[in-house]
Structures are given as C-alpha cells and as structure tokens.
Amino acid sequence: MLNIKKQLSRLYLSSILGNLSLTGAWVAILAARGYSLVEIGFAETIFHLTSLILEIPSGVLADVFGRKNMLIVSSVMTMIGNIIMIFSGSLWTICASMVFQAAGYNFASGSGDALAYDSLKINACEDHYGKYVSAQLSICRFCGGLSTLCAGFALLIGHRAAYGIDIGIGILQIWVLTSLQEARVSQGAENKQPFSAPPSVRTPKLHTAFRTTKRELIDCFAASVAFLKTARKAVLFMFCNSLVGSIDILLLFFLQAKLPGTGLSGFMLGFTLFFMETGGILGARLILKCWKLRYRSVFLLTTLLVICGVLVEHSGICWLMAAGGFVSAFGDDALQVRTNTLLQDMFPSEQRATLISMESFTFSMIMIVLSPLAGVLFSFW
C-alpha cells in the first residue's frame, strides 16, 4: 500500500519546481537579446511541431516504462534545453533548445496525472482526484504568474544567469521525483499493487527485450485507439475541454500584446497578467463546491464565461479587459477539473498516460487551427 500523503505531496512539490522559472517570459528574453518577432515566432513553431510529434509517443512510453521514469526524463530534457539556451548564439541553437523544452513538456503532460490517479486508486480514494487536479491547476496558474512577474529580474541578471538558476531548480525537481513510487492498477486485478517494471525491462536477453518492448508499445497504442473508438463520450469530453481551453489560452496570450495599447504601463502589465491567472485558481477551487451540477451545465456556464472574456477584450478598456481575462481563466480551469476527473474514471490504467497525451494532442491540433484565426480576430477589432 502506498503512502498516499507522501506521494501526492511529492507530486505537488515537483509541480511547483517544474512551473517556477525565471525564464517563463522567454519571448521577452529573446527579444532583449536582439531576435526579431519573426525569428521568435519560428522558434515557437518548432516547439509546437515537436510537441505534436512527441505527445502521443511520450504517453505510450510512460505507460510501458513507468510514469515516474518519464517524469524524470522530462526534467532532464528541460535541463538540456536550458543548457543549450545558455550557450546559444544563433537562431538554430535557439530552435534546438525549443526541441528539448517541448520534449520536457510532453514527457510530463500525462505521466503526473496518470501516476496520481493510480496512486489514489490503489488506496481506494480515487474520489479525491478532483481535489488533486484542482490543486495542480492552482499551482500551475500561481507559479506561471510568478514567472511572469520575474521577467524583469531575468532581464536584469541576464539570460545565462536566469537559465542557470532554472537548471538548479531542475536538479531539485529530479531529486524530488526519485522519491516517488511507481503505481499501476492492473486490469481486472483484485489486488491493487504498486507497478513493477515490465518483463521487457527485466529480461537479460537484449534482442528479446527489444522485441517484447516493441510489442508492448504497439499494443498499448492500439488498445488506446480501440478504447477511443468505443468511448464516444470520452472523446466528446476531450474535444469540449480542449476547445474551451484553447480559446482561453489564446485570449490571455493576445491580452499580453493588447493591454499595453490601453495605456497600461510595463510595470503594471506583470501584475495585471498575474491577476488574470488567479481567475483560474478561483475556478479550480470553486468547482469542487458545485460537484453535483451536471457536466452539460458546467460546460455551458464555463463556455459562456470564456466567450464573455473574448467579447470584452474588444472594449479597449484596461480594467474590463483584465476582468474578461480573469473570468475566462476561471471558466477554463473549472471545466478542466471537472473534465479531467470524469475522464480518469473512464480511462483504463494500462493506457492512462497515453490517453491523457491524446487529449493534449487534441488540444494542440485545435490550437493550430484557431491560432491564425484568433490573430485575425484580435487584430481586426
């Protein structure tokens, strides 16, 4: 039996360390180094392309080789990206760093949630998963806001020192991750025991291990696709959540560029962006008080909030635009908590990380479609 309190507290601490960064405003850092917006946009495109390619394979690897191991791989990838950024001197080395940064994001995207849910299920307390998701989203929003506030300090000390501090934080995160215990609930098993390494990892014959591992990877992906073909409700939940989330993310992104045009000073911009992020924290917490609401009602209410945020963005009034960003983040995270909890109850443990990655893949595809449309919409009005 897992010590669930220690397991979750370590996951929380890992999330704090993973989201705390002096280089969260990397666009501003690159701009200060003399890179043009076109070059920065190209680097961001490399990040998203890498993310699309690795999203589902990273989930499959987590399901086969263990979620804890992939969380450690995620931290290592991010640290490599930071090291490359320290020594970068051209656009191509910047893009190389983006590849590793994206890989770090992908390997962590489904592994943490899958590990948390199975840890809770082993202890027969999976009903508490909603509280876990709420806390994790609050951590991401709060630490993301702090990272935005640290942008000025990062520019003051220089990009090399800032990325060097991030590497130190990454080392601490790996130390925390090594103390986690792998957990997996076997399909149809009566005894819910912590997961041990698959036979392919333990076999002494290398060629046999390769063939077995290859078969496990293929089987895991095939089983995930087969599940989605029959679980239409899960697919609908994934699409609805990704659509609302993408609209909120795009709104907050373009508000960064449009708020200064209302007369907001650079000093106040960071605090305003942080204020909007706190809307997500409030939404993630309050949805726990409204758990009896039907999912359809939650979806309609949260979608309405996000749409309201988009509409007031065109007002040109600073405080109203900030309020719109706040309520949009509120709706996004409230729906995220509710949807993630429902999906985890549907997903089989053996493919849990893979299916979470497929949801992230859905989000990325929607973002690719909506991003240029949002650019036209927000620039036209």
Short characterization:
This protein is 80% helix and 0% strand. It contains 16 helices and no strands.
Description of the molecule:
- The protein has 381 residues and is mainly alpha-helical.
- The protein has helices at 4-19, 26-32, 37-65, 67-87, 91-109, 111-122, 129-149, 151-157, 159-177, 199-202, 206-230, 232-258, 266-286, 295-312, 318-346, 352-380.
- The chain contains 16 helices and no strands.
- The longest helix is centred in the N-terminal third of the chain and has 29 residues, at 37-65.
Please supply descriptive tags for the structure shown above.
381 residues; mainly alpha; globular
Portion of residues in beta strands equals under 5%
| Strand and helix order | HHHHHHHHHHHHHHHH
- Uncertain runs are 189-207
The DSSP helix count reads 16
Query: Cα distance, first to last residue?
Result: 57 Å
Q: Measured on Cα atoms, how large is the radius of gyration?
A: 21 Å
Question: What integer is the average pLDDT?
Answer: 82
> How much helicity do the residues have?
over 70%
Q: How many E-type strands?
A: 0
Q: What would the principal axes of the Cα set say about the shape?
A: globular
Structural class: mainly alpha
Largest sheet: none
List the helices and strands and how they pair.
Elements: H1 4-19, H2 26-32, H3 37-65, H4 67-87, H5 91-109, H6 111-122, H7 129-149, H8 151-157, H9 159-177, H10 199-202, H11 206-230, H12 232-258, H13 266-286, H14 295-312, H15 318-346, H16 352-380
